[in-house]
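debug: dumping io for the single-chain case to check the tokenizer round-trip. Nothing else runs in this session.
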Amino acid sequence: MVPAQSQCTACSHLDRQAADAQNAQQCDAFPSGIPDEIWLNQIAHTKSYPGDNGIHLDLIPLDIYQPPSAQA
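debug: decoded output
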């Protein structure tokens, strides 16, 4: 069984440089680290979550999105 991809990987707020360099899970909403509940899709980050500074899931348009396996 293939694990589900995190909702965060399709969000415009994800810090992709940190993720590539350190395998870190950081974003504009959570610069110190994305909570596991959000990263593991236990909670959809479409509404406020404690500490998110009012920043929520903002999907990247499909025409420019590249899933992690497709990135060079």
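debug: round-trip ok. The two ends are 24 Å apart (CA to CA).
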